[in-house]
Sequence to fold (281 residues):
Amino acid sequence: MYRIVGKKELAENVDEFVIEAPEIARKAKPGQFVIVRVTARGERIPLTIADKDPEQGTITLMVQRVGKSTYHMSCFEEGNALKDVVGPLGKPTHLEKWGHVVAVGGGLGLAPIHHICQGVKEYGNELTVIMGFRSRELVFWEEKMEILADRVIVTTNDGSYGMKGLVTDALLNLIESGTKIDMVICAGPVPMMKAVADLTRPYGIPTVASLNPIMVDGTGMCGACRVTVGGEVKFACVDGPEFDAHQVDFDELMNRLRMFKELEKKAMEEFQRKHCGCRRG
Fold:
C-alpha cells in the first residue's frame, strides 16, 4: 500500500498527490512514469512522475479527473493509501548540454515537463518554459517553473492571464524574434504536440514529444500503447514515452485515443451511481 501524504487541488478537476514510494523516489529519472491502481480491482492508470523527493521518500503525481479511475482516485485524501504504485517505468529523457531549450507544456503536460526541466537545468542549459491553459483559473505551478527556468511564458486561450493565444503562438514569437532554440520538448494534449511539431519542422528545430497513449501493463507485453514513429511501430511504455515529434503519426495516435470513449462514458456513469457520496462524484 502507498500512503498519500499530501493532496491539494491545483485547478478545476486537477489534483496534486504526494505519495510515499521510497524506492521509486530513489530511482526515478526525468521522463519516467508510474502505473497506479487505486484499489485491488481498479484500472491501471499511467501517471508521469512530476517531482520526487528521495530524502522524504515521496513522489508527486498530477491527476486530471476525466474518467472513472481518475475520479475514484480524487476521492482519496491525505492519510489514505493506494493499492499499487509501480515504477519507475519507461525510458528516461535523453539529456545533454544542448544550449537553449524550450519546454512547452499544456495543462497536465506540466507533469512530465517539470521533472524534465529539472534535468535540463542540471546539464547547464538555458531554459525557457511555455505554459498553456484555457483561462486564468486553470493556471497552476507557475511559481515552481519560475524556480527552474530562466524565462516563463504563460499563455491563456481567452487572454485572461499572461499572453493571449496558444503555446504555439508564444513559440512562434520566439522563433521570429531570432531567439536561437537548440531543442524543444513538449507534453500535453495530442493536438497541441502535433501543432508544436508542425511549427518547428520547417525551421529544423529538434523536437521531442512525451506521448500519452492508451496503456495497460506498462512493460511492452500488451501492445495497447503502440504508436507509429518514422513508419515503425513502437511501444510507448518501453520505447518511450518520448519520441522525435517530427516522426510521430499524431493522427493515428488521436484516433486510437478515441477508441474506448463510449466504454469510458459507461464506466463513469456506473461509478457515479455507486459512489454518489464521494465529494467528486
Remarks:
- The mean pLDDT is 90.
- The radius of gyration is 18 Å.
